[in-house]
Amino acid sequence: MEERRKYVRVNEKAQISYVVIPVVRSKQDITSDISQGGIRFFVHSFIPNGSHLRVRITFSRANITIEATVMLAWIAKVSNGDKYEVGVKFIDISPKAADHLTNYIRTFVKTKANLDYSSA
């Protein structure tokens, strides 16, 4: 099966806080995965497609936090529970935050490759 993704996506359990714009209230959760193009995570209430969110992601392993504005690309109700899984894409991220994210993903991929190789 051919990979259709534009960016490498890594499984990452980073803390994420977000607000739907216009701001109603801030919420927090954990990411499922992240790429240079977007993030997948869970939310506890429905958010309409196309909504803009302001996110703050903390990568504890690297001791970095990035902030960005994202747009909800898709949302799906989780079959067991009251959560929704969402996919968002970055629409406004500073060059510095983008560099941090790119470097973090590259390091994650290299580390994972080394772990996979050493376990073979």
Overall description:
The protein is an alpha+beta fold. It has one domain (9-113): predicted glycosyltransferase like domains (Thrombin, subunit H, Beta Barrel). Helix content is 20%, strand content 47%. It has one helix at residues 95-118; strands at 9-11, 15-20, 27-35, 38-43, 52-59, 64-77, 84-93. It has a six-stranded antiparallel beta barrel with strand order 2-3-4-7-6-5. The radius of gyration is 15 Å and the shape is globular. The chain starts with 8 loop residues before the first strand and ends with a helix. Mean pLDDT is 83; it is low at 115-120.
CATH class: Mainly Beta
Low-confidence stretches: 115-120
Oligomer: single chain
Largest sheet: spatial strand order: 2-3-4-7-6-5
Number of helical regions: 1
CATH-scheme architecture: Beta Barrel
Q: How much is the average pLDDT? A: 83
SSE layout and pairing:
Elements: E1 9-11, E2 15-20, E3 27-35, E4 38-43, E5 52-59, E6 64-77, E7 84-93, H1 95-118
Antiparallel strand pairs: 1-3, 2-3, 2-5, 3-4, 4-7, 5-6, 6-7
